[in-house]
Amino acid sequence: MDKHTDKTASRQPTPQACHVGQGIARVDGRAKVTGAARYSADFTAPDLVHGYVVNSTIARGRIVNIDATGVLDFPGVIAVFTHENRPDLAWFHRDHKDKDTPTAHFRPLADAVIRYSGQPIALVVAQDAETARYASTLLHVQYETERHQTNLSALCDDPDLSLNQQMIVKKTPKPRGDAPHAFAGASIRNCTQYHFPIEHHNPMAPHASTVLWHSNGKITVHDKTQGSRQTHDYVCEAFELDKADVQVVSPYVGGAFGLAIRPQYQLFLAVMAARELRLSVRVVLSREQMFTLGYRPEALQTISLAAEPNGALNAVMHDAIGNTSQLEDFTESIVKWSGLLYQCPNVKLNYRLARLDLYTPTDMRAPGAASGVNALEQAIDEMAYLLEMDPLQFRLKNYAERDQIESRDFTSKELRACYAQGAERFGWARRLHAPRSMREGRELIGWGLATGVWEAFQQKASARATLSADGHLEIATAAADIGTGTYTILTQIAADTLGLPLSSVTTTLGDSSLPWAPVEGGSSGAASFGSAVKAACEALKKRIAKHAIAMSGPAFGHVTEDDLVFTGGQICLKSDPGKRVHLKEVIKRIDISQLTVDCSAEPDAASKKRYSRNAHSAVFVEVRVDEELGQVRVSRVVNAVAAGRILNPKTAANQILGGIVWGISKALYEEGMLDHRIGRFMNHNFADYHIATSADIDDLEVIFVEEHDSEVNPLGIKGVGEIGIVGTTAAVANAIFHATGKRMYALPITMDKILSSAKA
Ligand code: MOS
Known about the structure:
By secondary structure, this protein is of the alpha+beta class. Helix content is 26%, strand content 24%. Bound molecules: dioxothiomolybdenum(VI) ion. Dioxothiomolybdenum(VI) ion (MOS) is lined by residues 226, 256-258, 261, 363-365, 367, 521-522.
């Protein structure tokens, strides 16, 4: 990967004497490669015992008998918790809602009812993890089974069901013009249907919680979480604990991709056992159990497009059905992009949810857009071919200058530059339009293109900046770094604001006792935490300047803060740089051990109303298809991204590269496979759930297009965690069409589909 990153980094202009904008290596890199970084299952205590979760084997029904005698008799077993003996918490008698998913939380061990296969039904606690795991097989459970439904297509096709009664209709942007009418009267029109399967997050580190029990009754929780405050609030509320009695410490996450936005069941079970047993408890999920948490929901989509003979889009209709659980309405932004991405007078969007006997889906990298935009961008490609237009020309012809849904401008939109620079780098001009027209030996070559879009979110967050007497700056916020580079970019922002070298700044994250921060999600981390850190450092700078002016007296003369420059750990006079004072001298002279400032930052409400804010991308993909073997190889990808100012081209390119790899993986390999007869995911391991590996990845290139945006937030940044997957999947599918002449409407595009379409 390094060569790709370096290629990208070298193309960035290198601003002098400041860290922001430079491809700084991760400040937490050494801790990670030496094993010093501790993840939630790494924390320990002398009294640590281990819990293993037992999951239901049926998808719907109830437990009629659960017999733990054999488990309890097994040497080393300490306790077994089930719905029959779990503590009677008030939480079980009311709904628990959280901010991100304002519907009821699943409550583990609440009752005997089974709502999905894999539901946790017991926790076996033993002296060691192996004993707990083995003893869990001795639990005898008798179920009363009810008929379940886990098949979304079957549910939708069932003629006995009135769809509108069975499905939950979600709010979508209101229709524009009259799309059905425009579509019906159009001479050039096309209606296509897409099936995107369930996907699982599969972060490298599985979900785990270690709860340390202290003799004063307080607990320290080490949880895999995208938000230490979120975990803290959940634990305090579910167990009715005093906020001061719980501390969540989760400095490293081990990958999450949305799966650790919501507290998961191992957290509840570990805290419950620790409180009941008055012991420290660790619960780690197995890889198989990682398939019993959230996932990207299945999506059935119908997209209808109509265009004028000159290539102007005249109607867009996008209808999506996603699945949710019996417990909650899991909703994502899946269709709104189809009303946003292209100029079009007639638009109609529909989104419905169907309840299945599965666990509730959860956010997964670019939730909604990864399904909605990747389907739309295949439909757009198909329409370009109906019009006999170059797919890039067709997109440019229908370029949206404004947000037509909200009737307002964008803070910035350099998508045109993404198309231009991406096309140039990729060599798009050399592409032959006709499918099956490019070949090398026995391989068909296909070049495909797609657009990506993702919203530039910012959430309210706070941070603390502390300057010590030795001149060292410490930045602290409860925010998480889920592997995206947050430690590094916050360190860069802080160092630049106070004119310090990176080595004089330490950033501490993932601790609920630190200033409040929301979950790291929606690609909002850089804008949210970065703005808070910037604000805290600016405020600290003001205070230091005030002291410096007061103490320097005659040295600086009558000056204000604006006359001073902070550089190299010193403060000097702009007009006479020879006059200077060290930061540590300032602290020493005011005779305190440190100066501390807490600050929060939030998006400008007026600006948020006036402008739409989005990151954009253009993805160009080359595939090589061996029709005899059905093998598809993605040989080249150029992803040109416009995401405002890039704080760190190295970590940012890493995010885009990860998104591209996942986009390829989604196009060609990933599929959570249910056996609908038993309602369970059967490919719950890395042998059967296929993910792109290094061998599947070839030449990837990321371009960051220059985009100046002083409106989106004071830092001018848009977030890059998710945009990389949006468009990539569609570009692969479009490239496969260009290579083979066959449209693939169902993901993943596996060998069998290539082979059967080749024969057709
Ligand atoms: Mo992301 S799906 O918001 O972690």
